[in-house]
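Appendix B. Raw example, untouched.
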Amino acid sequence: MSVQFRNNVHVTGSGPATMVFVHGFGCDQTMWRHLAPAFAGRYRVVLYDLTGSGRSDWSAYDRTKYASLHGHVTDLLEVLDACAAGPTVVVGHSVGASIGLLAAVAAPRRFVAQVLVGPSPCYVNDGDYVGGFNPEDIAGLLDAMEANFLEWSRKMAPAIMGAPNQPDLGAELTRSFCRNDPAIAKHFARVTFQADIRADVARCTVPALILQCSDDLIVPREVGEWLHRHLAHSTLCVIDNVGHCPHVSAPTASSDAIETFLARALR
């Protein structure tokens, strides 16, 4: 099976460097449609679906391989082997940001910069670390998903999107969640919300932009501040926006922040 087929890879644009976009849980590459075109004039833009999501080959979803985020890291590096040209900027949203960061740790020479959109190295509060959820909150979230994934999606997706003045975006995210295979989505959710990559953050040397919303139900401001303190060569940018998906609900502010960061990081 080709990587391009497995991950429904699409390549647009041209340039001496590659920009690869990694979507978050419950989403697919279409969530980048407002942001990716802004860079296609100067970069080779690579869009793909995580295995088990979107229009990827769901039959390739191996629960053993994807029992941790490292299975998706391997896929990302394989996508780049097949499709990238020159140095790479990885742009990841939510758990996609974690996948991108882990890839940068595994192959630092491959990446010149990373953009972490709504990132969280750990969703669970732990001592002085504020992740946003207590262990029982995560357990309840996963139990609700197990009981009725579609109903959970209909309730949670609009809240995750936020964007109270753009209700159509919440409906769009709901449809995206509901298009996924419930069994795969529930497995991926456990991997996502129980992941803890804090120990990997200090090992990452690739310059990073931490792009966060001012009001995010999933990732509180403290998470971005923790990342900024512990991630070398990082820049923290907080966008005045409600929700967890600024690349969808505030694409202009997001692209402006990325442009400003890359102008400094790549000079």
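End of appendix B.
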